[in-house]
Amino acid sequence: MRKQYTVGALLLILAMVMTGCSWDDLKEKFVGSEGSVSGSAAASDSAVEIENYDPVECVTLGEYKGVEVDCTVTEDEMKQETDNLLMQFSTVEEIKKGKCKSGQSVNIDYTGKVDGKEVDGETAQDDMIQLGSSGHADGFDDGIVGMEPGKKKEVKLKLPEDYQNSEIAGKEIVYNIKLNYIAGETKTPKLTDAFVKENTRFKTVKEFKKEMKIALGDQKKKNAAATALNTIVEKSTVNRMPETLKEAHKRQTDHSYRYNMSQYYGDTEFDVILGNMGMTKDVYEQQLEAAGENNAKIQLVFEAIAQKENIQVTEAEIQAYANNAISSAGATGTLDDFKKQYETTYGTSVDFDSFLRTSCVYERVMSFLEGNLKIKE
C-alpha cells in the first residue's frame, strides 16, 4: 500500500511522540487566545505537495515489537526533581548599596530610543543581565558598570551596521537605564519536614519522597509508548528521505515557532527576536533543516509500522477522532473553529484533513506499541 496522504501537524505529533502528551496537555495550542502570525514575524506559508512514497521502502525499521521500556526511577532522577522544586522557592539577595562591577548580575529597567522614538525589542522592565556578557550592543554593559542601585543613567551608543535589528543598524540609540539592584547570593531552601509541610500536600520528607517516586514511575509508564517509539526511531535507518516531506515539516516548524514568538514580541522584526534569543539567521536555518529531517524520519517510522501491521483508518474513524480531540481539549467550538486555530498555529502548508488523518494513524500506532511493550519496573 503506497502512501495516499500528506504529513500531519508536525509539532503536535512531535510533542506527543517525544513526551507522551495527551490532547488535554496541548489544549492551549488549539483553544487559547485568538491570534495570528503577522507583520515581520510572518513565515512563508505556501502549501507543500508531498510526493508519493512508500514508508516501508523509505525506512528500515528497528525492532518494534516487545520493546523494553525502563520505568524504574533512579536516585539521580529523584534528586533532579527535588532540586527543581527547591529552585522554585529560591530567592536572590537584592543588594541596594555599592557600585556594580563587570561580571556581576544586575536587575535593570531600560528604554531604547532612536530619533526620539522608543524601539521595539530595546525596552525591558525588571531585566536580569550579567555585565560583560548580556548580549546587548557593545558599550551597553560598560555604560552600566559603576552605577549604584536606584540610580538612572543615559547611555548613548552607535549601533554597528550589522546590528540584529536592520531598521536601526548603524544609527545612534539612547538608552535610559535604571539600576534596580545588584544580584547577590542565590538562596535555595533545604528539603526539610517544615518545608514539605508548608509548601506541599505532604507532612514529612519521607512521605514526600515516597509519593514522588511513585509519581515519577507512573509518568514513565504513561509515556512508555512514546519512549518506545523514540527507541525504534533511533534504531531505524532511512534509505530514502522524501524531500517534500522534510520540507513540509520544516515549514510547519518555522510557522509554529514564528507564531509563538509573535505572541510574545508582537510585530517585532524576526531578526530581532532571534537576536534576543542569541541566535543568528544561519543557525536558525540549520536548526530548521535538522528538525525537518528528524521529524520526517519519525513520521516515516510510525507510518511504516502502520503499514506492516495493516493499521488503516476510515473516514468515520477520522471524524470520531476529530470529535474526541476537540472534546478532550476542552474546546466548545466546532470543527471549523478547531481548523482555524490549527491553521493559525501551524499554517496552511499542510491541509487540515491530512493533519487529522496522520494524527489518527499516529494514535493507532501508539496504541499498538503500548500493547506490545515490556515494562521494566
Summarize the structure.
Helix 8 crosses helix 14 (352-370), helix 9 (243-265) crosses helix 11 and helix 11 crosses helix 14 (352-370). Helix content is 47%, strand content 17%. By secondary structure, it is an alpha+beta fold.
Question: How would you characterize this protein structure?
Answer:
- This protein is α+β, with helices and mostly antiparallel strands and about 375 residues long.
- Helices cover about 45% and strands about 15% of the residues.
- The protein is built from 14 helices and 9 strands.
- It has helices at about 10-20, 25-30, 55-60, 75-90, 140-145, 195-200, 205-220, 225-235, 245-265, 270-275, 280-310, 315-330, 335-345, 350-370; strands at about 60, 65-70, 90-95, 105-115, 115-130, 150-160, 170-185, 235-240, 375.
- Strands 3, 4, 5, 6 and 7 form a 5-stranded antiparallel beta sheet that branches. It has a two-stranded antiparallel sheet with strand order 1-8. A two-stranded parallel sheet has the order 2-9.
- A hairpin with a 2-residue loop joins strand 4 (about 105-115) and strand 5 (about 115-130).
- Helix 8 (about 225-235) packs across helix 11 (about 280-310) and helix 9 packs across helix 11.
- The longest helix has 28 residues, at about 280-310.
- It is globular and about 70 Å long.
